[in-house]
Amino acid sequence: MRIVIIGAGMVGTQLAKYLIQEKHDVSLIEANEERARHASNRLDCLVVHDEGNSLHALEEAGTAKADALVCVTDSDELNMIICGLAASRYPGLLKIARVRNDDYVRLSRQVEEPVKPQAGDTDSGGRQAAAPEPADARVLGIDYFIHPDVEASRTIINTIEHGAVGDILSFSNTPYELGSIDVAAGSAFDGLALRDYHALIKGESLVTLVERQGEILLPSGSTVLARGDRIHILADGKDLFRIFKSAGSTEKPIRKIGIVGGGKVGALIAEGLLSHAAGEKEREKGKRNFLFPLLKTLIPRSSRRIIIIEQDYKLCKELAARFPEALIINEDISDESFVNEEQIDDLDLLITTTNNQELNIITAVYLKSRGISRTIAMVTGSGYAAMARQLGVDVVIPMKSVVVDSILSHLMGREVKGVHRIGDGSVDIIEIEIRAEAQIADTPISQFKLPAGGLVMLANRNGRSFIPRGDYVFNRGDHIVLISKNGNEMEVEKLFGSGL
Questions:
Q1: Who is most buried in 47, 274, 316, 478, counting CB within 10 A?
Q2: What is the pTM of this model?
């Protein structure tokens, strides 16, 4: 597959690095000379130092022969313009744009799902309003919009739903989820050989991955767990916390939640945690909320209390008007006297979402040392995520990695429904639908082999999810989830369908 990436920032370079590793043909266009030089020195691909909205640069990067164009510059408008320009010259090209402006996402969803007229709606002549004409469901020819704040907020809210004791990865159309947690000293998992795992844990579940002192292990029955190991367990979502307790997690209701940073991510999380009053008012007016449906609601809200801590006074006023149920505090979280006076160390959960990743980590670690049982910190990349976890932060959300995973899910073939990188980013979780033309169809799992210890860990057939055993045969229409180390995408392509 040939892919042109516009923008060699952290997201662009992360994406390019992964695609190159998977043996795709990648070109990068970057206007900033230093960034372009840095990318050229680090990546084995063509790097064009030029403006992304230059036709000459697009041609030099090989856009005419490319399969996909991904625009991830720092400017929403530039990303959209480049996609529109490419759409006019290369209509068959898949186009993905990263945007942060909510209005652009709303616009794209209005085009995809035009609001149908209600009974009583009339046109200018007093007649019943007609249904909208079918439209090309693309704005400026853009196939997919990627909204970083929504992606990060959705990930955080899903984590809170599961008690914020570890990272949680959900899959489509199945109750099974992949949860990760550290093994505590003296817990039932400390010293447990995986051959004895099912004697301890009843029901269907599977230890899929073990992270140990910087090493990634695809475990076998002889693997022995030890304190400090970070384990990734596949199980029905309702069973995960019971399994986490065996790893040393302690259950405590989440009733009082603090959000540090009232920017877009913090506000979206608050909207997911509170009563959605703004969304309800919009619906009363006949309008549709195109952003919030991407987030899920949580446990009953009656006993939940939300505190938002934000340093910017003007933003605090806006938050107070938007979320009257929440307590908005206009203070600097790094001021120790404020922490002592407000006694915020009695929170059940603290979420740090400021634009300063170092502050997010330090705040989470410091307040956890003062008694807050669970913390979530938002960081930029996976490098800081590993450090934050080592320092004791329960859940770390690497913003750029979340965005890259979302882009990858759209870039892969039509049979691929999702791509998620876990651990240090060197292991892939891939959701796949088995199509009629797939080579693997009607093949027993005993004949299915992926290099580097790949494993089919979940199957969904006709709405029933299960962990496949040795007698499982791949059927057309099955949805499966597999795990493998980076570099095996081509092998997956051969087995599962028409390709990328």
A1: 47
A2: 0.77
